[in-house]
Amino acid sequence: MAADTQTGSGDEESGRHQGEVELQCALCMKWFTADTFSIDTATCLPFMTNYVFHCNVCHHSGNTYFLRKQANLKEMCLTALANLTWRSRTQEEHPKTMFSKDKDIIPFIDKYWECMTTRQRPGKLTWPNNIVKAMSKERDVFLVKEHPDPGSKDPEEDYPKFGLLDQDLGNIGPSYDNQKQTTAAPTPGGLNGGLAPGPGKGRGAKRKQQQQQQEGATAGAAKRTRSDPLFSAQRLPPHGYPLEHPFNKDGYRYILAEPDPHAPDPEKLELDCWAGKPIPGDLYRACLYERVLLALHDRAPQLKISDDRLTVTGEKGYSMVRASHGVRKGSWYFEVSIDEMPPDTAARLGWSQPLGNLQAPLGYDKFSYSWRSKKGTRFHQSVGKHYSSGYGQGDTLGFFVELPDGTETAKALPDTYKDKALIKFKSYLYFEEKDYVDKAEKSLKTVTPSRMLFYKNGVNQGQAYENLFEGLYFPAISLYRGCTVSVNFGPHFKHPPKDIKYQPMSDMGWGAVIEHTLADMLYHVETDVDGRRSPPWEG
């Protein structure tokens, strides 16, 4: 359903196009017409405020993110009056600012209900009385006129009439949570979707704006008794992962989730309707960062990771960290430089599958293969064999893996995790996956051709392993005590191998995004055809 055709007007100074469906980015706060990004606006209205939008420049995926949210009556009345005001200005010789409840406002809301909110129409027609209460109560937003002026020719039945206190329609916009903290506080009268802030002007405006920022941040913190994980999931730190997060341990793994823009019913993302119920995993997807880095969650907690997620320092006994991305087929390479290695420390470096034990040295179990600094020993299943001379501080090591294309693992798309339970931790949502280590160990089988080669300062040390177990392999580092190493996933290496063909691990960043997107889309297509799957935790 679309609104009646209204003539749009562009404001060259502000870049606004009033009368058209416009969207304000929650991060950069810029305004865009909806057709700029080819967003389907069939169920949208000009001056709507009940949405969250991120432009493709600000959203970490590089795509636009748009979600309509459930509007309350106050927001619906604001949108209705804004559209009626604009229509009157552009189509009538004598524009009006006040509109009849029965002749204008109620018919407009009734006609465009589905465009104004994701809520179903109430069964009982009580909402017309409720909108009068809503507007009468909000005197900082709405003007109310209950009776005609004495001597006026207006019929009594046209009253009560309502209008907007602020007649500048350019001030209407969504009131985002972070707006209170990163920009000037909203103009009084702003609502969840209300009056958008404008830049301060005049003497003392900067000081006043700073004061409003502090007050707005305090008020915002006090009001947010229930945070919205949908929005929080978009406000990731620069390195792409929450600072506080659950660790993979005790037989469970945690995958950061974000709203799936390809989900067939994005309106279901609103958490109100899922209060006390498990949130359907098919509305979310694994949140992937486009750069390959050391994983913050897939590591032993005692390891210290640098801010850029490329350097790690050990603590006490052997413990391990994996990279954020893994490979299932092809030939791949990465480097590790030994920054500090005091005499009583050591490192085991190499490759690990997801189930490799994080609280043990790399090469401890069937899921990992390593090369130790001390004596150059190689380890797999806790069995050490002589491989090369050792390595130490100042050395740069290279790690190559070759996996065949014809295996089941190689042909499969990555797991979507949509059948897993979603848990909330520090305002973010995570898929929770149970580890079945014993079952996985029993099902392991070797594949050919497959091999690992290790390099020391550009020199091939020979074949370390062949006939590897089939699976998904991640670059992995395990450290003993206070050893510090830095990893280079490419594409530019200090000692690029010249005797093999390979892809740098950095290529797996966008490669994983593509694979996961394809898997998510296929899931939705299959679900649309076969019906919604019931996750095991739903019984």
From TrEMBL:
Localisation per UniProt entry: Nucleus
GO MF term set: transcription cis-regulatory region binding; zinc ion binding
Region (Disordered): 142-242
Skewed-composition ranges (Gly residues): 190-202
Superkingdom: Eukaryota
Family annotation (Pfam families): ASH2L-like_WH, PHD_ash2p_like, SPRY
Protein name: Set1/Ash2 histone methyltransferase complex subunit ASH2
Gene: LOC110509609
GO cellular component: MLL1 complex; Set1C/COMPASS complex
PANTHER family reported for this sequence: SET1/ASH2 HISTONE METHYLTRANSFERASE COMPLEX SUBUNIT ASH2, SET1_ASH2 HISTONE METHYLTRANSFERASE COMPLEX SUBUNIT ASH2
Low complexity composition-biased segments: 210-222
Domain B30.2/SPRY, chain residue ranges per copy: 271-494
Annotated Basic and acidic residues bias: 142-160
